[in-house]
Task: structure prediction
Amino acid sequence: MNSAVAVDQLSSTFAALADPTRRAILARLADGEATVNQLAEPFTMSLQAISKHLKVLEHAGLITRGRTAQARPSRLHGAPLKDAADWLEGYRRLWEESFDRLDEHLKRQPHFPALQRERPAPPGGAGLPT
Amino acid sequence: MPEWTPDGSDPETQGITITRVFDAPRELVFKAWTEPERFARWFGPSDAEVPPSTVSMDVRPGGAWRATMFAGPGRHEIRWKGVYREVVAPGRLVFTISDQPSGEHEVVTVILTDLGDDKTEMRFHQVGGHLPPEEYPRAKHGWSVFFERMAELLAEA
Result:
């Protein structure tokens, strides 16, 4: 179903997204590239901690970082995110269509309500075999 | 306490949630999920085929299931498999599902509720199983919302 997408890449993507700080960083980068200092602004954590997060995102292929020595701005790389979104969407389509078929299948099933309804527990006899 | 996720977080914000009402009693819906002959008749998109002979189900906690699907005009073969985690007939089924030999899997929860009049509500939830439960984000906005936003932004790019 998702044979075109390397499973390892998806795992890296999902692992990278599992952290709220990294998601916030990605959301900020969606508005345009930013330096480590700019990205660190909303957080109380150190620049070092932010840099660690950026390394994870870079390793997962979700951002690219410029080579300018000082600023090294980070920029969003959208393809892995789109792949992950497509992958999840593929599952959704699979299930929605399957449930349409399940609906049709169930409509064709004869059933006898009186026999298949669960029998109520006998009064005072809860737990005893019927 | 939501019964979807191990950490009780809002199921709507993670993975896939689908709710349907079927005109059939719970027992029949549960059978459709757990009996190979029945499962083979509906699992998959409309242009796919699951031969019943390829479906096996050991419906108990720890038991395995598998099914082979031939999808699309090219009859591309997909080998589905998984393991049951919870089996409480006719109301609750939790199992893993994967099409990857490597063991990457998703966790599916199916909850069936009797609505009376021989109608059943099915609540279906799928969430990624490749992260340990404690790593699941407790964010205000879950993955699906995030992905939707990213998809919109990417579509504009």
About this structure: The first strand of chain A starts at residue 63 and ends at 65.
